[in-house]
Structure formats: structure tokens, C-alpha cells
Amino acid sequence: MATIRDVAKLAGVSVATVSRVLNNNGNVHKSTKEVVQAAITTLNYRPNEIARTLYKKNSRLLGLIIPDITNPFFTELARAIEDTAHRYGYTMVLCNTDEILEKEQHYMEVLKQRQADGCLMITNEKATFLDEELGIPIVALDRPIHSHIPFIQADHYQGGKIAAQTLLQKGSTQLVHIRGPKYLDSAEARYQGFLDVVEKEKISYHIFESSFQPRNDEFLINNIFERFPEIDGVFAANDVIAVSVLKTALHRGISVPEDLQIIGYDGILFGQLFYPSITTVAQPIYQLGKQAVQMLINLIEKKETEQKICRLPVQLVERDTTRKE
Amino acid sequence: MATIRDVAKLAGVSVATVSRVLNNNGNVHKSTKEVVQAAITTLNYRPNEIARTLYKKNSRLLGLIIPDITNPFFTELARAIEDTAHRYGYTMVLCNTDEILEKEQHYMEVLKQRQADGCLMITNEKATFLDEELGIPIVALDRPIHSHIPFIQADHYQGGKIAAQTLLQKGSTQLVHIRGPKYLDSAEARYQGFLDVVEKEKISYHIFESSFQPRNDEFLINNIFERFPEIDGVFAANDVIAVSVLKTALHRGISVPEDLQIIGYDGILFGQLFYPSITTVAQPIYQLGKQAVQMLINLIEKKETEQKICRLPVQLVERDTTRKE
DNA sequence: TTGTAGGCGTTATCAC
DNA sequence: GTGATAACGCCTACAA
């Protein structure tokens, strides 16, 4: 790899001059500029980003710390984030933590050592990641960390309400909500939204808690159908659970949506591949990722964000696990 | 952030000594070592990876260049790769190209400028990425690039055979293979495997080509059922297509697997969530990713790989879109 | 065993 | 307008 020195030598100028044309700052005569550019071209020179980072202390490197890229919600988020980061000239490092604190901490160390400019984070470890001890700007995605760490999330409370309202409106009367784990703020909000609707409407309902681990859900769902054969509407806390409910119901000979309506949550792409396709409360996944990156870059470059909290609207996507009219 | 100089000052030694205890090379007296370590601890010092890279010219950074993380096969691959890279002390940068040459080239530039040690690549641009012009070691994953670029792939020819044999063995007599695009080596191999079996057995069959774009497949599949209502076995070139076939069949009132057997390909996790769950020829996805990283690291650290080509076996996963016995 | 000093490839501050 | 040169934080001859 050619260095700036090689270019300088070939162009017959000093490295300072080369640097000036590279960064387009300082004054340099038009003719010498051309000579330098010619040298750059013939040597196929590209500035060494590492050396630049060392001096300027910004790396244009962003970390994405998530539980598991294999979870389709995170997959789509990651795509949006990488797209956006790339568009702004940043490079994205992917980190899977499996929600293990040690891994999260380790990745934070790695990112810091690599002088990453910032980090997007999905974690439950609220206490551990406070702004000051980090040393690098972070934005919390979907799961809040701390009141002074900028945070972006879909409006899950509203999502829960929409799900419940839709089920009722389309004729279900015996509802079940399979909610996510209690320690998840987002699961709690969906649950609250659901609850506020069914309580107000004085509807019969049951609540169950999923671990968000597909393997364990099968047993839970079978159990629900066993104990409460009369239920005719399920709001699942995410699309994967919704799909499991669908599968179990079909397996038991229950017609969907005639005898049982199902609403999922997230709006992952896969939902439409099922038969019947999954009605869902869709998060604006791409938007979430995109805005998260923009918030983070704002934080990095302008050293401040306008709003510490950003909440995006969800949207009902009616497909075939709910009745038409 | 504390620097090595701060540590040296606090410990009352020179930076060289600190460096020696950091890297555990050179001789340093036990007592001074302890003093240095104490200083490191109190300052919470971590060596700056950027400075290290600049000097040593290896960054422990790996690039993963893939078409789209949103494709579930790539998602699971990425997880395996990140896991493995991390285990070996490498950091993984994710790059989505959408199979656009300009993006691929741009990411290669970025990786080079960041002094990435190597790169895993899934691309169709065979001609473009020859070893020499790259400057960094690469390993081709699933899609070959060039005979002298190390390459790892599942045994797709065998996979195609297995799919065809299974369908026949379980009683299908009118087969369809929805194959992947012609420019994909891996699609071609599956097709050949399928072909060799049905030709040898003198079975009636039809071949159709999918673009691997879910949106376009729906029309194709409906068309197939329309024109050839007699078919009773489908081998889809990947699980997503298989799922679309399933959906369309169910929609048309065709019983699966009684009237129509379906076999997918890849073995993505999602396949088991469908009802009926998808029988598939599973690639050893995690293994593929893991070994790809190991090959790459070998290339980086030992400057050579034993075998330029690595082919891993596939495995039939019998689920519910094929008949029992 | 330990310290000094030069260099990795840039950028920026001075002079000229 | 241009050129030395001192950083950035680290590592490693080479000396001592």
C-alpha cells in the first residue's frame, strides 16, 4: 500500500501539501494540486484510515450490540442500521450478546479500544451501562437504559391497545395475551395497552408469559388451549409467538380466523409467508434503525441530541389471522 | 482514556517496560511487573487498538460481505461467523451489498483502508475479486470466486440428489424443481443433482427458475399449479420458496403431504414453525460459517491454507411436508 | 532487567 | 502557497 510519503515523493512536494489536497483544506496552487492528484491516481493511493483515526480520534466506526441477529426483529433492524451508517460514511461492527452481561461488557471494551465513535445498544442491563463510565456515546434501542441515555422505541402501549381493540372489534370475546418477559419494558407496555382496553370493556381475558424462547413456547401454548378451549382471540407479544399459536391451533383443528383470531407483533417480513398470513401490529422497524443511527451520529458530531426520547408509531397490518369486517 | 505513558509515569518506569508486561514479552522483574499491573488497574488502562494496528499492521478486524443480512440463510451464517470471529479475538464488520458491484467494491475499499486483516465474501462477481488486486486475504463462502481463492460450500449436488431421491422414495411421481438463478453455482449444482436422479429413474419432471426474490415467486408458483395440476412433489431451491409453495398449495386446497410433497433447502430455523413444518435438505450453516472463519484466520496468521476448497455434507431433515414411510 | 529513541501514516501548527 | 516537524499511542531494536 502506497503511503502519503510515496505520493509526496512522486509529486515532488511535501506530505503536508498532499494532505492538504486530500482533505481539501489549506491553500494549494491549482497546478500542484493537479500534480498531486495525478500521483494519487497512478499510485492508486488511499489514505490509511487507522493513521487518521489515531491522530483525529474519530474512527467512523459504530457498534451494534444486540442479543442475537438471528431474531428476525433484530435482523431487520440491523439491516436498517447498517444501511444508514454506511450512507453517513460509518462502518458497523456487529456484536451478539445473547443477553449475557459479560459479553456486553466485553464488546463495550472492544469498541472502546477500537476507538469506536458510538454504539447502538439493545440490552436489559440498565444499571451497568450508564453514560459516564462508557466513554463513548450510546443510543438505546427498543429497551431503555437510563434516563440520560437517548432512547428510541415504538409506541408499544399504543400497540397493545390496537391489538386488543382489533380483536374485540372483529368479534372475539374471550381473549388471551401471551406477553413477553416482565423485565422487558416493551413487553410491559404492550401488556398495559392490552389490559387497559380489556378492563375498560369488561372482557374476559387471561395473561400468560412467554420467555421469548421459541422452544419453550410450544408447551405453554398447548397448555393454554387445553385449559381454556373457549378462547377465541390471541394477542401474541411477537410474531414468532403468533406463528406458534397458529401452528398449534391448526394442529388442534381450530379454524383460523373463524374460531380463533390471532394478532402478532413486530411486523417481521416472514409473517406474510404463513397460511393464513399473520395479522400483526407492525413496528416501523426500518425507521427505528435509521433514526437510531441518526440520533447517534448527532450525538457524536454535534455532541448533543435535541430529544432524549423518540417514540415512533406502530401500525396494524391486517392479514388473514383476523376476520374481514 | 489513559495512555501507556500515564501508566509508565504512575508506575515509575518507562513505557517500554509497560509495553513488555502488556504483551508478556521481554524480561521484566517480577516486582516491577506487579507495580506496573497495579498502575494499569488503578488507571483502568486499556491499550489503544488503533495505535497497535498502526504499528503492527494487523487489526484483528474481519469483513463480512454478503448480499443481505435479511435473507435467513445469511442471517444464520452471520451469527456463526461473528461468534467464531469473536472467539478468536477478531471483530466483525457487516456489509450488505444487495449484490450490487459498486457496493461490493466500495466495501472492499473501506475494509482495506481500515486495514482489515481479511474478508469473508458472498458474491457473484467472479471476475472482479481476484486475489492480487485485493491486497487482503479473502475466503469465498457458498459462491466460488476464483480457483485460487479459498472457498467453502455445502455439497449442493448431493443435496439435489437427496431431495429428488426422497421425493421418489416417498411416492411422488410427477416432480417439479423450482431452481435458483442460473448464474448461481450453488443453484446449478442442486439442479444437476436433482436432474441426475430423475433422468436415471425416468421420472416425469418440470424445471422452473426462481429469481430468489420472494415477491416474484408467488406468480410463478400459482402458474405452475395452474398448468400442471398433476404434480405431486416439489423440490424448492430454498426454504423460503418451499414455504411459498406450501402456502399456495394450501390456499388451493391441496393437502400437504398427502397430495403434494414439498422439500425445501437450507434448513433455516424458521422452517419448523410452519404447519405443516417444512421438510428440507439442511446445510450445516453454523459449521459453514465457523470453518470459513477458521480458513480465513489460517490464511491471515499462517499465510496459507491447507485446502483451497472445502465442501461440507448436507443432511435431510424430515418434517411434515413429506410422508412418513 | 530496564530505558531511549525511532517509526507506523496521518494531520496540523508553525515558519518561510 | 509550501515545507519542516511535532504530535497521536504503541512497539521494538538497540543501548546501557
Automatic annotation (TrEMBL), chains A, B:
Residues 2-56 form the HTH lacI-type domain. Transmembrane segments: none annotated. PROSITE patterns: HTH_LACI_1, HTH_LACI_2. InterPro entries: HTH_LacI, Lambda_DNA-bd_dom_sf, Peripla_BP/Lac1_sug-bd_dom, Peripla_BP_I. One of its GO terms (molecular function) is transcription cis-regulatory region binding. Pfam families: LacI, Peripla_BP_1. Keywords: DNA-binding, Repressor, Transcription, Transcription regulation. This is Substrate-binding domain-containing protein. The lineage of its organism: Bacteria, Bacillati, Bacillota, Bacilli, Bacillales.
